[in-house]
Amino acid sequence: MIKKFIDKLIAKANPGARRAAPRFGQRVDVPPEVHGIDPALVDERAADVVRVLKDAGFEAYIVGGAVRDLLLGLKPKDFDIATDATPEEVRGLFHRAFIIGKRFRIVHVVYGHGKESDVIEVSTFRAFLDNSAAEQVSGNEKTSRRALAGMQHAVDASGRVLRDNVWGPQDEDATRRDFTLNAMYYDPETQILVDYHHGIDDAKKKLLRMIGDPATRYREDPVRIIRAVRFAAKLSDLGFALELKTAAPLVQSQQLLADVPQSRMFDEVLKLLQTGHALATIEQLHKLGLAHGIYPLLDVVVERADTDFVHAALTDTDRRVREGKPVAPSFLLACVLWEDVRNNWNRRLQAGELSLPALYEAIDDTLNLRIGDISGRGKLAGDMREIWIMQPRFERRTGRVPDSMVTQLRFRAGFDFLWLRAEVGEVDEALAEWWQEYSTADEQRRYDLLEQAREEQKALQRAKQPVVRRIPKTNATTTAETAATGPAPAGDAASDTAPAKKRRRRKRKPGSTDGAPAGPIEP
C-alpha cells in the first residue's frame, strides 16, 4: 500500500513519467511447429515490408488481426506491420510511403496503382503509458485542436486517449494493445511467433480476453466496445466468446461512445456490417445487451434486421464478402433506409405532389435524418440517391429509357436493389427478369424485348379500361306504331327492329340511254 501511494505521488510530481510495464508481459517465442501458421497465407507485400525494414537494421513483424487470423488458419484481409523504426525512418525506406494520422501516427506503404493498389500499414512500437499522467484537454479532437498541437500523449476529461505517439520497446507495445489475440507478432522470415499475453493459450480456449482492466481499456478508447462486438461476431462460428470479465463492463461503458467523433463512429459501424458477419453481429448485439444505443443508424439496422427486405440485404452482403466480391456501403444503407424513403414518398404523393419532386424530397429528408452531416457523406449519399431514383424508372420499359438505364454507372447496384425487392415480393419478379435479360442481350433481342414490353403495356391498359356495351338504336316511328297496333306477324317486314334502308335513286347523265328513253319519264 505504501509503495502504491509513493508511486502515485511520483506520478503527480512527474506527469510525463512512464509506468512500468505490467508483470504479465513476458515474452515467449513460439516456433512454427507449435503455432502451425501456414507461410503460404502470408501476403508477399507484407513480407517484403518486413524484409526491407530488417535489412535496414530495424525490428519488424506482422502484427494484430493478421496474426490472429493466420493462427486460426484464416486468410487475413489486411496485413499490418509493427517496427521500432519511427514514421520518418519508415517513410525514407520506401518509394511510395505516407505518414497519416494525428491520434496515432502511422505510415501507409503503397504497392501498385489504381484499383490494383494495396496498402500495408506500418506502426511504430508505442510505449505503455499511465494515462492518468497524460496531459489533459477539456474538449475533444475538434474543439481542442490547438491545445493538442505538439502533444504526444493527451486525454480528454473522461480519460479517452486523444494522442498516443510516444515510442517504446516491443513488450510495452504489446501491453497497450486491446485483446490478447491481437497482441502477437509474427516474423515471416524466421516464422517465429512472439507472444506476451498468453494469446496462444486463449486461442486454444477460444477466448476473447482484454489485456488489463476492461473498464479502464474501454474508457481509454470507447471504440473498443464496437471492436469487441465485431471480433465476437467474426469468431463466433469458430466457437469463440468474450471472456465474462471482458464482457461485463460493455453496457455500462456504452455511454462513452457519445464523445467519439461521428465520422469515426460511422466508419466503425460500417465495419460491423461489411466484414461478412452482419447477421452474426446483430445476434451478438442482442446477446451482449447492446442492441440499442451504440449509434442511431445501427439502431435502425437492428430494428429492421428481421424484416424480409433488410434481412435479405444483410444475407446478400455476407455472401458477397465470403465469395471475395466487393461490397459498397451505399447499397446496404440504401436497403436499410428504403422503408423511410418509400413511406415518405407515398405520403407526399397522397398529398398531391408530383412523383419525381416528391421522391427527391423524400430522399433528402431521409439522408438528413439518418445519416446527418458526416465526413464523406457526399459520395455515399450520391450513390444511394441514384439507386433509389432508378426504382420507378425500372417500371418504364419503352422508348429510350432502357438503353439509357443500362449504360449508367450505377445500373448494376440499382438492378441488384430491384432484384432484392422482387425476391421479397415488393415488385413483380418478371420485371426483374426482363431487365436481367435486356442488360445482357444483343440488339435484335433487345428489340424483341421492347416489343414484348409494349404488348404487355397495351394489355395492361386494356384491362384497366371499363367495358362499354352498345345498345341498338330503335326507330321512333316504328316503336310508336308497334305500341298502337301490336307486334307484327312473324316474317312481316314491319317486325324488323331496324328501319328499312332508304334506297337512293342515281341521277342519270343527260343523253344517257342506259336502257331507258332519254328525256323526262312520262307518268
TrEMBL record:
UniProt-listed InterPro entries: NT_sf (IPR043519), PolA_pol_head_dom (IPR002646), PolA_pol_I (IPR010206), PolyA_pol_arg_C_dom (IPR025866), PolyA_RNA-bd (IPR032828), tRNA_ntf/polyA_polymerase_I (IPR052191)
Entries under Pfam families matching the protein: PolyA_pol (PF01743), PolyA_pol_arg_C (PF12626), PolyA_pol_RNAbd (PF12627)
GO molecular function: ATP binding; poly(A) RNA polymerase activity; RNA binding
Compositionally biased residues, Basic residues: 500-510
Reaction equation(s) it catalyzes: RNA(n) + ATP = RNA(n)-3'-adenine ribonucleotide + diphosphate
Polymerase A arginine-rich C-terminal domain residues: 353-465
NCBIfam families for the chain: pcnB
Name assigned to this protein: Poly(A) polymerase I
Organism: Giesbergeria anulus
Gene behind this protein: pcnB
